[in-house]
Design goal:
Elements: H1 8-12, H2 14-46, H3 51-65, H4 69-82, H5 89-114, H6 118-126, H7 131-161, H8 173-184, H9 187-217
Helix pairs in contact: 2-3, 2-5, 2-7, 2-8, 3-5, 4-5, 5-7, 6-7, 7-9, 8-9
Length: 222
């Protein structure tokens, strides 16, 4: 039994696939912003003198890192309405992506903060800087520079994780591909095409982060 390739349905639906790529990038970008905010805030709370806050951060990280993202997005999707907050699939997916990426960002940034010499912190305090300013300028910036390649890799993974958001019908590349495949039954052509599109998206995200690293941390652009 031979299989005859037919990319006609893919070409016909290519504008929709491009819009799906834009949806994927939007989910990824919004998720990254939330994840970075959670990562920085979580690191600050992780060093809090209040034990309850430290344990809250630890518990959050362990729960997220040891459960599948599909379970997490389902939990957010079905739990928020029980709390009286009904959101469309796309905002729900952004929240779930931000929470997932934030847990990993906490551990990555915490490793960078731990690598900052204590002498730099003491010098900042000795100069009369407020603890908040010491954290921002003396600790956080060098820490982010040290862990930026790891954050880049994690955020590329977060970009690819957006495909799971199709499980709750969020608008992104995989959800569009499913619609085209359901109408045409050309599974190989559809998923082969979006494989290439995901490779292109990953490359674009890596290039963007490389430019950011060059702009803010003086890393060479490769």
């Amino acid at each position: 039994m031979s299989y005859s390739l037919d990319f006609g349905p893919v070409l016909a639906g290519f504008p929709d696939l491009l819009r799906g790529c834009a949806g994927t990038l939007f989910l990824a970008a919004a998720g990254m912003v939330i994840a970075l905010a959670i990562g920085i805030g979580g690191v600050a709370l992780r060093s809090s003198p209040v034990p309850a806050l430290r344990w809250l951060v630890i518990a959050f990280v362990e729960v997220i890192r040891n459960t599948p993202f599909l379970v997490q997005i389902y939990f957010v999707f079905f739990a928020l309405p029980l709390a009286g907050l009904r959101l469309p699939p796309t905002p729900t997916a952004i929240i779930a992506l931000g929470l997932n990426g934030g847990a990993y960002a906490i551990e990555i940034i915490r490793g960078g903060v731990g690598a900052v010499p204590k002498g730099q912190v003491e010098a900042g305090l000795a100069l009369g800087l407020h603890k908040r300013d010491v954290f921002r300028f003396v600790v956080l910036r060098p820490a982010l520079r040290a862990v930026f390649p790891s954050l880049t890799g994690q955020f590329v993974m977060l970009t690819l994780t957006t495909s799971i958001a199709s499980a709750i019908a969020a608008y992104e590349l995989t959800s569009v591909a499913k619609l085209i495949e359901n109408e045409s039954f050309r599974s190989f052509e559809v998923y082969g095409t979006i494989t290439l599109l995901y490779l292109l998206i990953s490359w674009l995200v890596m290039r963007l982060f490389a430019l950011m690293a060059w702009r803010y941390f003086s890393y060479p652009v490769k």
